[in-house]
Amino acid sequence: MRHGKKFNHLGRTASHRKAMLSNMATSLILHKRISTTLAKAKELKKYVEPLITRAKEDTTHNRRVAFSYLQNKEGIKALFGEVVEKVGSRAGGYTRIIKTGFRLGDNAEMCIIELVDFNELMLKEAKPAKKTTRRSRRGGAGKATPAAGSQETTEVKADETPAAEVKETPEAKADDTPAADDKKEEKSGE
Fold first, then answer.
1. Residue 141 in contact with residue 135, Cβ under 8 Å?
2. Is residue 74 part of a domain?
């Protein structure tokens, strides 16, 4: 019976699963980002995050334990070198899984797993520019001051055309003239 044993076997024997996770962890550490299926990425996250936590303390014992998992000298050098420099201050959550859709052949859900502190695009988006203006519900809501350093443009919107430039049709002119108003009142008075 296998009651209570709740981890994904990934359709492999124990030795095959261990070798696959070891290779994937090494690739993730060396390349900082890999594309794989969602199930493998979730298992890889459980496999590699304790190794990164262990690598924060650079001792001979921790290097040997990490080597027993990775079986790759270049992976160990990268893990205890550049990876720990970036994530040394982080308490946990060293990886990010981004879903990318489904594979064409077997419709498996694909994703990208990456080390969080190595994605420069996400780091730039994480720090939004500080907003210098404040909107109020009071009367001045129609006009907001431009942000510091931005150039103000003078565009005329279709809704805000000046009254002098509005061209009226002859029918509108005939209805709005005072003489037309007098004629309407005379007809209603009769």
1. yes
2. yes
180-184: list long-range contacts, CB under 8 Å, 24+ apart. none
Half-sphere exposure of 54 (CA within 13 A, CB side): 18
Residue among 100, 98, 130 at smallest CA distance from 115:
98
Question: What are the average pLDDT values for consecutive 10-residue runs of the chain, which has 190 residues?
Answer: 90 97 97 97 97 96 97 96 91 95 97 91 70 72 54 51 52 54 55
Show the domain range for 32: 14-126
Residue 151 inside a domain? The answer is no
CA quadruple 166, 171, 174, 180: dihedral, nearest 10: -130
CA atoms within 13 A on the CB side of 110: 11
In contact, 56 and 85? CB cutoff 8 Å: no
- Residue 180 identity: A
Q: Does the pTM exceed 0.90? A: no
Which pLDDT tens digit goes with each residue over 63-119?
999 999 999 999 999 999 999 999 888 999 999 999 999 999 999 999 999 999 888
**Total of domains in the chain:** 1
